[in-house]
Predict the structure.
Amino acid sequence: MSDGRRPGSDDRKRRSPAPPGTHAAVAVAVDVVPFALREGRLHAALIGVRATEESRLFAFPGGRVQPEESLDVAARRCLERHVPSEGRFLEQLYAFGEPGRDPGSRVVSVAYLALLPRADDADGVHWYPCDDLPPLAYDHGAVADKALERLQGKLAYTNIAFGLLEDGFTLADLQRVYEAVLGRGLDRRNFRKKVLALELVQPLGRVRHGPHRPAELFGFTERALVTVETLLTKKG
Amino acid sequence: MSDGRRPGSDDRKRRSPAPPGTHAAVAVAVDVVPFALREGRLHAALIGVRATEESRLFAFPGGRVQPEESLDVAARRCLERHVPSEGRFLEQLYAFGEPGRDPGSRVVSVAYLALLPRADDADGVHWYPCDDLPPLAYDHGAVADKALERLQGKLAYTNIAFGLLEDGFTLADLQRVYEAVLGRGLDRRNFRKKVLALELVQPLGRVRHGPHRPAELFGFTERALVTVETLLTKKG
DNA sequence: CTCTGGTCGTGTACAAACTACACAACCAGG
DNA sequence: CCTGGTTGTGTAGTTTGTACACGACCAGAG
């Protein structure tokens, strides 16, 4: 693994612009995994990339990082180009850089996790349930796994799930979000106790009417994304 | 944020090799934050990058990613070039890509977190206590913050701290690791109960002699890195 | 108007986990 | 033989998590 230079020499010189003629062969891209709820199930937004003879192939929205933009900006740009939304949550997920992940060229892709309050349809966008994704191009299968893993993990100790809701939700709505992401049921009474005790939501003073007892509507409190001690336990 | 192409068009074309003459202006590097314990305090390994008139400047070991190597391999190569060790733990941390982070050229750097069982001295390597780091080049101040944050966070629900120890440690040694990383004391008896209950360590049948009662020596169990329910609580 | 289905909202008993804390065992060295 | 400093163990009290039942309330059917 040595490059032949003397030990202790400063590796920083490699950061200088490459000499003329030897341009860097590694490109940088971003990919965004957009999650949203549809009919109580967690869905991800995909773009069709090409149709082989017998099967279509999908990938997450993404693109090259421009020389003057940051990774975060590039991710938001790529997200908004395909998926129109007012997503509040966009967080870096992981950098994928295996040499063979993109056939033909060497691309290091920084993946992002995006949470949207609604799964709006748009031109070229396909929403698929997370537990039934179509064949994915590149290494986007691994990207999807990582995204879901991160979302589930952060669910337990942050209020990240609120990125999948808009103000004016009922506690039952919120619970459905948790159940959809975790893939298991929660006890309604214990879940309610826990959420209210942490004071992450505040009643709006309005109610939602339906064929049943009216449900109180809630909104988020001031803090946008907090790391709480334990927002969730085994049974909610 | 539109690039003028029709909506829904496939952004994937950007992944193809750049046309001749228009080479990608964004380079990819890795930086490794190596942590180890020295005299009961958490230290990080730094490399001197340049000496200005009145002050030296340091940075974490790093370098450009080679066209044929993966990010993980590049990180291990850069770590081992500077810091000789048999580090068991090396994990991707975060990708830093602000346009201005590296003066002169656009470099996206994928940072890695490394844990070493010992803080060995080597040519060109400087070990500094984490709570008293010297001035850092680039955005390595933010990198250091992120690394420490990750380490502290994972301490609570994984056995990541074991990367800072070698087999043949006492439970007091292990506790000192936790206290050094967290920066606070833990209750000896509760800590011992917790660690033993999780069966992450196994007695080696040997003891360490000293001027006091002999201490039993432990090693790690088979599983290398596990995510435990709650390895740590407030008082250990 | 009454009935009914289905949801909303609350409280209580039990079990498990966390926290605080004290004492004897043991060795090296004086 | 005594002493200092560490290792090793257990118990009581508090907090947190878990399981579970019942009345309140509305819309719609009859």
User: Anything to note?
Assistant: The two ends of chain B are 50 Å apart (CA to CA). Residues 170-172, 188-189, 192-193, 210-216 of chain B lie near DNA strand D (CB under 10 Å from a C1'). Residues 115 and 156 of chain B are 16 Å apart (CA to CA).
